[in-house]
């Protein structure tokens, strides 16, 4: 058995899972508050773009980080205004933000940099310097190969996930979030300001999506490419649904999707280019398989005639 290959796969799984974990844990809060937010895809894409272009323009990485966080919060505030305050259609508003994320970055790149495909910022952002050597992990066999020399956002992600799970189940705010999503009218009757709860949850989701976008563009590549989020926002919606809006279960599915993407990358090195292109569908096939496995027991419990066994 090739242990080095397995350890490399696990190392890549950690790296590939970070955007999924961040988007999923933030999305769980929004979903538990009773808001269907499909704009996480666009929010992540915009954050990846803002992080690179502002770092490139200013020559400072921290400017890109602040810009990505600010833009993500602004987008989710816009989503909150149109959906919660103005009672707009959630799918329409979310789709609008996603479409803007597909159109605005290439237009800006074409107008200022004569390229619609990418913006390389390695002169300012060096991905090699983004990786951290952790002394505690350095001398631990196996764990060193898997977890050491990951990026700062990678280590921050595990901390964020743990903290948000505690917030969901061990704090008054977490209780308010769950009550708001389960019965908004009952929550209002006991004095819970449900709109404020939804806004805070959207801000949490904005921050996690921004961190996911920064991880993709600033930390991993030092450049922005069109469609950099690669449907991760939609995949995380599947993780949230499969996990029944439970943060622990949803994060397990996020790790599964990260593992599949890492596996795809590893297998690509051993197959012809034609098959390599075909393997691009592997994460999406995994979604369908997982959804079928998770939803099949519920379908059997459904009392509608079309689900009854003949």
From TrEMBL:
**CDD domains under this entry?**
TM_PBP1_transp_TpRbsC_like (cd06580)
Q: Which residues cross the membrane?
A: 61-82, 153-169, 199-218, 273-294
Keyword Ribonucleoprotein present in the record's keywords: the answer is: no
Q: Which GO terms describe its cellular component?
A: plasma membrane
Q: How does it sit in the membrane?
A: Multi-pass membrane protein
Which coarse location class applies to the principal site listed for this UniProt protein? membrane
Q: Which Pfam families match?
A: BPD_transp_2 (PF02653)
Q: Which GO terms describe its molecular function?
A: transmembrane transporter activity
Protein's cellular compartments: Cell membrane
- What keywords are annotated for this sequence in UniProt? Cell membrane, Membrane, Transmembrane, Transmembrane helix
Which InterPro entries does UniProt cross-reference here?
A: ABC_transp_permease (IPR001851)
- Record protein name field: ABC transporter permease
What organism, scientifically named, is this protein from?
Candidatus Avoscillospira stercoripullorum
């Amino acid at each position: 058995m090739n242990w080095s290959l397995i350890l490399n796969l696990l190392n890549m799984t950690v790296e590939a899972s970070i955007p999924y974990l961040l988007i999923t844990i933030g999305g769980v809060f929004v979903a538990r508050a009773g808001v269907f937010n499909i704009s996480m895809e666009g929010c992540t894409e915009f954050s990846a773009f803002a992080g690179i272009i502002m770092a490139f323009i200013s020559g400072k990485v921290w400017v890109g980080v602040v810009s990505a966080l600010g833009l993500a919060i602004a987008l989710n505030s816009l989503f909150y205004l149109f959906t919660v305050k103005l009672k707009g259609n959630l799918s329409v508003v979310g789709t609008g933000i996603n479409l803007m994320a597909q159109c605005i970055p290439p237009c800006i790149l074409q107008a200022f940099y004569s390229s619609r495909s990418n913006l390389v910022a390695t002169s300012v952002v060096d991905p090699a310097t983004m990786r951290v050597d952790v002394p505690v992990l350095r001398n631990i066999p196996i764990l060193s190969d898997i977890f050491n020399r990951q990026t700062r956002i990678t280590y921050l992600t595990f901390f964020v996930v743990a903290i948000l799970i505690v917030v969901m189940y061990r704090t008054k705010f977490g209780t308010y979030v769950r009550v708001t999503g389960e019965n908004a009218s009952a929550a209002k009757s006991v004095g819970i300001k449900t709109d404020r709860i939804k806004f805070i949850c959207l801000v949490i989701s904005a921050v996690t999506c921004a961190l996911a976008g920064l991880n993709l563009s600033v930390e991993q590549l030092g450049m922005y490419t069109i469609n950099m989020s690669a449907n991760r926002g939609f995949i995380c919606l599947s993780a949230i649904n499969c996990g029944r809006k439970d943060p622990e279960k949803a994060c397990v599915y996020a790790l599964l999707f990260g593992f599949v993407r890492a596996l795809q990358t590893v297998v690509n090195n051993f197959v012809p280019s034609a098959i390599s292109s075909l393997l691009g569908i592997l994460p999406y096939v995994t979604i369908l398989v997982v959804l079928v496995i998770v939803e099949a027991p519920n379908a059997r419990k459904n009392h509608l005639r079309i689900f009854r066994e003949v």
